[in-house]
UniProtKB/TrEMBL annotation:
CDD domains xrefs: HTH_TipAL-Mta
Gene3D superfamilies: 1.10.1660.10, Antibiotic binding domain of TipA-like multidrug resistance regulators
Protein name, per record: Transcriptional regulator
SMART domains listed in its UniProt record: HTH_MERR
UniProt organism field: Geobacillus kaustophilus GBlys
Keywords of the record: Activator, DNA-binding, Transcription, Transcription regulation
Domain HTH merR-type residues, every copy: 9-78
PROSITE patterns to which the protein is assigned, alphabetical: HTH_MERR_2
GO molecular function: DNA binding; DNA-binding transcription factor activity
Length: 262
């Protein structure tokens, strides 16, 4: 006797528990068209099947990598979306992340052992540990926004440049960073983003970027300046120089890069 085999289905609560997210998150994914249920029960409950479970897995993979929801929606709903290829890419990116975390953990453990007197740590090892901690902090604070704007490849290359920096190169970057703030402070007194002081601040900023980016472009420089105004954390950093400094600096950089009227 043949019996119809029915696929396993999950309610919102069941799938949320399975995936380790909230029911509210699943309902929101439905509302924005990111993950629709397979069907609705007669009682009016959302029901999800194997295809939706696989799709949710993809969404959570991308979220783990810091991709915003709108971009995820465009990716997974694209006719050219290749699930197997995406999984392989996720695996590679997660392996890279694991290698980074393993290196960070090893550096922290070595630092703890050195503090406890168990081992001696060279200045080079201390600096390497410091750089890994700095990368981790930057990723936590700004990773999602920066990766969304410039892409994983560019950010990963920037992080690699930091890892390869010598102490002298890092000190130079720190000096330039302070010089930018001092020049910006002086330019704010002048009040003219096209003035000599403001343009000097923009040029110092370009020099600073040259230590972090493997390729400089005026478009990327202008885009970063826009982010300094749009992101409250960056805005607060520059506005500590003087109220309105972030907006002023953006204008100065746009003039410097020739992007102001585009």
């Amino acid at each position: 006797m043949n019996r119809e085999v029915r696929e396993v289905e999950y309610t919102v609560h069941e799938l949320a528990k399975l995936a380790g997210i909230t029911s509210r998150t699943l309902r929101y994914y439905d509302e924005i068209g990111l993950l629709k249920p397979a069907r609705w029960s007669e009682a009016g409950y959302r029901l999800y099947g194997p295809r939706e479970v696989d799709r949710l897995q993809q969404i959570l993979f991308y979220r783990e990598l810091g991709v915003d929801l709108e971009t995820i929606k465009q990716i997974i709903h694209s006719p050219s979306f290749d699930e197997l290829k995406a999984l392989r890419e996720h695996r590679q990116q997660l392996l890279e992340k694991r290698r980074h975390l393993d290196a960070l953990i090893a550096s922290v453990e070595k630092t703890i052992a050195a503090k406890e007197g168990g081992i001696m740590m060279s200045d080079k090892e201390k600096f390497a540990a410091f750089k890994e901690q700095l990368i981790e902090e930057n990723e936590r604070k700004y990773g999602e926004e920066i990766r969304q704007k410039y892409g994983d490849e560019q950010v990963d290359r920037s992080n690699d440049r930091l890892r390869k920096m010598t102490k002298a190169q890092f000190d130079e970057a720190e000096r330039l960073s302070q010089d930018v703030l001092e020049a910006l402070k002086e330019a704010m007194q002048d009040g003219n983003p096209a003035g000599e002081a403001a343009q000097r601040a923009a040029d110092l900023h370009r020099q600073w970027l040259g230590l972090w980016w493997d390729h400089y472009s005026k478009e990327a420089h202008a885009g970063l300046a826009r982010l300094y105004v749009e992101d409250e954390r960056f805005k607060a950093y520059y506005d500590q120089v003087h109220p309105g400094a972030a907006e002023f600096f953006k204008e100065a950089i746009w003039i410097y890069t020739g992007m102001k009227d585009r």
